[in-house]
Design a protein that fits this description.
Helices cover about 40% and strands about 15% of the residues. Helix 2 (about 30-40) links the parallel strand 1 and strand 2. The chain has helices spanning about 5-15, 30-40, 50-60, 70-80, 115-120, 140-150, 190-205, 215-245, 250-255, 280-290, 295-305, 310-325, 350-360, 395-400, 415-420; strands at about 20-25, 45-50, 80-85, 95-100, 130-135, 160-165, 185-190, 210, 330-335, 365-370, 375, 385-390, 400-405, 425, 440.
């Protein structure tokens, strides 16, 4: 930590002790679990979020995310956690962790407005002896090129008085096998001193810290992780179409291939990609790669395949109804599951929303059932979509001309669905493909 003086050493000692105050900027699917883990290890945590409803709920000890319990929020409040909409609270913190969204713009270009706004809001309140860590997924160079100039604007030198790091989030909402503590944490900093301070910060939170050489390497690490999934899901979705034409059950094929103990990782097809990472992050790299004269054809092709899956599902619905002499126009279609994956309430980039939009455009009478999402309305990408989840019972199933399994929540009674549904279009491989009432999509 040459050149960083005693500032880094003092901050490291404070972070390793129990006196450090940590500010979490963004109390969403990443920030909230991180806050709970920090409280668990004895840190004092202040949450900062511009959403007044989230802040109010957090201060009442209530959870607004389905897989996070209100009991854990109440325990955090009792341990001293508090939330605020005021960025002035940043001055009280030894560490500030930015966990804000990084969506795509209208032309699928990176939208770093949330990161930039958070950095600008923090900047007037920064002081000597703090660390700022960005966790939002982004393209290589963001920490150095965007965040660093903003936080240095008041004269604090990164690496000497102020420490700047990048450590990509690796949350998997609803996955009980892995927690914030047990998922290894990739960490780096703008300087060696920044990296050492970041390792001290995260070393208290997680079982294993994985230091890398630069923030750019850490940023690309997260993109590679998500591109790996996007490309492999795109591959199996494309093979699904081939298998369908050949009359072969793709789910059977994937399960059989997965018995090979080496050289194969099973990925299962579905109705498309959802969530805040996998459908979005690959395009952060494709956009940045153009700056270096590289056209990432492989990544973009996988994106094209995955984005086409909702249309494929609707096409299977049209074909299945036609086989039963029923047009899609005017047909009653019930979509099971509107969250982007099973057992969570997250709608971001959910292929179910696109399926509902396409069905409505074809004149179908649409409805959905999801135990995790009671109502859908006011979504920016789907302004005309306003629905309430219907109770999933025999009557609802019998009323529908077609039932689509879009998200395979564990709460659904699949035996009851099969008993009472007239036609099932199954995009998740829940049912045997030999069932005469089931059409694989």
């Amino acid at each position: 930590m040459q050149g960083s003086g005693t500032t880094a050493k003092a901050l490291i000692e404070r972070l390793r002790g129990k006196k450090a105050v940590v500010g979490i900027v963004g109390l969403g699917y990443v920030g909230l679990p991180l806050m709970l883990r920090l409280v668990e290890v004895g840190a004092k945590v202040i949450g900062i979020d511009t959403d007044e409803a989230k802040v109010a709920a957090a201060n009442r000890g209530r959870s607004y995310i389905r897989h996070i319990s209100s009991a854990s929020m109440a325990a955090a409040r009792a341990a001293g956690f508090s939330a605020t909409t005021s960025f002035a609270a940043a001055a009280k913190c030894d560490a500030l962790i930015i966990c804000v969204p990084t969506p795509l713009g209208s032309h699928r270009e990176p939208d770093l407005s949330f990161v930039e706004s958070a950095a600008r809001a923090l900047a007037p309140h920064l002081r000597k002896g703090q660390i700022v860590s960005l966790e939002s997924t982004t393209y290589p160079g963001t920490t150095e090129e965007l965040v660093r100039p903003i936080v240095e604007r008041r004269g604090l030198k990164v690496g000497r008085e102020l420490f700047l790091a990048y450590s990509p989030e690796r949350e998997d909402p609803g996955n009980s096998r892995f927690t914030t503590r047990t998922i290894p944490k990739v960490v780096s900093g703008c300087t060696e001193a920044c990296k050492q301070v970041a390792c001290a910060l995260y070393g208290r939170i997680v079982d294993k810290v994985v230091p890398v050489s630069s923030t750019r390497a850490a940023e690309l690490t997260k993109l590679l992780e998500n591109i790996h999934r996007a490309v492999n899901i795109g591959l199996v979705n494309e093979i699904k179409i081939v298998a369908d034409r050949m009359g072969i059950d793709i789910f059977e094929v994937v399960r059989a291939a997965a018995t090979k103990p080496f050289g194969f990782v099973p990925y299962f097809p579905g109705p498309g990609l959802g969530g805040h990472c996998i459908p979005v992050d690959p395009f952060y790299l494709t956009w940045k790669a153009r700056e270096y004269g590289v056209h990432t054809r492989f990544i973009e092709l996988a994106g094209d395949v995955n984005r086409a899956m909702p249309e494929w599902v609707v096409g299977k619905v049209i074909g299945a109804l036609n086989d039963r002499k029923r047009p899609l126009k005017g047909a009653k279609v019930l979509v099971l599951g509107i969250a982007y994956k099973k057992n969570i309430d997250d709608l971001r980039e959910s292929p179910s929303l696109e399926i509902l939009k396409l069905l409505a455009a074809e004149g179908a009478a649409i409805a959905y059932s999801d135990p995790y999402v009671p109502r859908v309305a006011g979504l920016h990408e789907y302004p005309g979509l306003s629905l309430r989840s219907v109770v999933l019972n025999p009557q609802a199933l019998q009323r529908a001309d077609c039932v689509i399994v879009a998200t395979d929540h564990s709460d659904f009674d699949y035996k009851m669905i099969r008993r009472h549904a007239r036609l099932i279009v199954d995009s998740r491989g829940v049912y045997e493909s030999t069932d005469p009432r089931v059409v694989r999509a």
